[in-house]
C-alpha cells in the first residue's frame, strides 16, 4: 500500500538559460505509518520534493500519484516553516479553519481542533488570539490545524527551522506524538541532524538528486 509515489520526477523553475532544475529524476514512495526525514543543505531541493509529494508543485517531468488518497485536500496536510496563522482569530479558530474550508461542518471542525490542541499541548491557549503567541506556540497551532483535517499524510517543511533548539525540540515532540496518535504518515524536511536523528527513515537530497533512501536507527 502506497500513499504517494514519485516516478522519475523532475521539477524545473524558469526557462532557457535561466532555468533551474530543483529536483532531478526522483523516484520514491511513502507508505502508511512512515516516519521520514528529508535532509540536505539549503537549496538542495528538499522543500521542492516535499511540495511535489503534497501536490503543491506540478512536476515538469515524471509522474506523482496518490494511489490510496482519494481526497487530497483532506488526506494531505502540510505544516510550513512559518505558521501562517490569521492574527485576528483565536488559536481554536485557526486550528479549525482548514477543516472548515475543506467541507467539515463547523461543529465537527471545532471538536477536531479542540482534540488537536490537546494533542500538541496547548489546549489552555484555545481562546487566545494568534498574534499574542510565541513562536513555539504558533507552530504548535499550525500543527493542530493540520491535525484537525485528520490527514493520512502529514508533511512538514522545516517545522523547527525558525525556532531555538529547546522550543524546536518541544515542537518536534508534539509533531511526532500527533502523528503517532492519528496514525498519519509523517515526512519532514530538515537541515538539522538532531531533528533527522529522530526519524527511522532518512532521505538525503544533494543538488536536486535523491540519494537512495536508507533506514537507520532512531536516536
TrEMBL record:
Residues 4-218 form the ABC transporter domain. Signal peptide: none annotated. Keywords: ATP-binding, Nucleotide-binding. It comes from the Bacteria. SUPFAM superfamilies: P-loop containing nucleoside triphosphate hydrolases. GO terms for molecular function: ATP binding. Gene3D superfamilies: P-loop containing nucleotide triphosphate hydrolases (3.40.50.300). This is ATP-binding cassette domain-containing protein.
